[in-house]
Write a sequence for this structure.
């Protein structure tokens, strides 16, 4: 174990009373880690808010696409229906032409040919009318889908605007908190021993945490046991001691110390003798008398 540190003025930051009294640098580093963790959480939250808004905006884009798709289907439906109506009109004109020509034909073959064309045109008209009916049913469904898509888009748009407003408020609050934490952090760091602070920074960069509680004679971060003599020194919280395995600065919290069970009470000699004689008496009482 490595030991470093020096006494100095204690900052205004409060610390759990269960850890007092404590080495001044150890106390400051304990509070510094709390501040660094909270600052890290707030920084991640600020960075994550735009991503959260972007995810909602992506969902909004999907709703917009659904609306545009429904409109495109309706437009295509109307275009196809107009084409079918134009085709019907064309076939009707052909039928009128063929019927007009039938009155002037000279042979039965010519007449049958014209009637075949009329029959074909009538079938085409019937097919177009069936398609128009299907298109009208489809148009009704597309219009319903469009209304649903537009309602979803309206709701999603409101949610996005609310999320953006919330993100702006949360960002402003977090940045204000971060400014306060930075001020506290700078104050604490200015009062910590340079060697202890350098060790703290190095371990913090490597492991994302620089301190660990020591409990049951082991580091609670890496769970490596410490030597009995070192354990006794850690329990005093009077000096900075680091874990030989993970390098974290160790501290002891008496609030988490397991209660020592009370030793079992010894039975008195008289009671022990009494218990020993009880089986013998029971044996005599249950032994049958032999018959003569």
């Amino acid at each position: 174990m490595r030991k470093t540190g020096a006494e100095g003025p204690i900052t205004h930051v409060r610390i759990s009373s269960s850890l007092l009294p404590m080495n001044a640098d150890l106390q400051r580093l304990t509070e510094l880690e709390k501040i660094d963790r909270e600052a890290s959480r707030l920084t991640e939250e600020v960075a994550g808010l735009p991503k959260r808004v972007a995810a909602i905006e992506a969902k909004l884009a999907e709703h917009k696409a659904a609306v545009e798709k429904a409109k495109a289907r309706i437009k295509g439906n109307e275009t196809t229906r107009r084409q079918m109506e134009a085709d019907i009109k064309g076939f009707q004109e052909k039928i009128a032409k063929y019927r007009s020509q039938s009155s002037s034909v000279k042979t039965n073959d010519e007449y049958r040919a014209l009637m075949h064309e009329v029959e074909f045109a009538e079938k085409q008209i019937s097919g177009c009318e069936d398609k128009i009916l299907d298109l009208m049913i489809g148009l009704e469904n597309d219009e319903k889908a469009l209304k649903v898509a537009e309602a979803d888009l309206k709701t999603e748009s409101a949610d996005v605007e609310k999320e953006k407003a919330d993100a702006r408020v949360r960002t402003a609050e977090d940045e204000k908190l971060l400014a306060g934490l930075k001020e506290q952090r700078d104050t604490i760091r200015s009062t910590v021993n340079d060697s202890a602070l350098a060790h703290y920074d190095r371990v913090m960069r490597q492991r994302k945490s620089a301190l660990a509680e020591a409990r049951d004679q082991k580091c609670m971060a890496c769970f490596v046991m410490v030597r009995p003599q070192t354990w006794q020194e850690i329990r005093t919280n009077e000096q900075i001691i680091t874990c030989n395995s993970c390098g974290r600065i160790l501290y002891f919290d008496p609030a988490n110390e397991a209660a020592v069970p009370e030793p079992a009470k010894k039975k008195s000699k008289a009671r022990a003798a009494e218990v020993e004689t009880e089986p013998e008496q029971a044996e005599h009482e249950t032994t049958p008398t032999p018959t003569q």
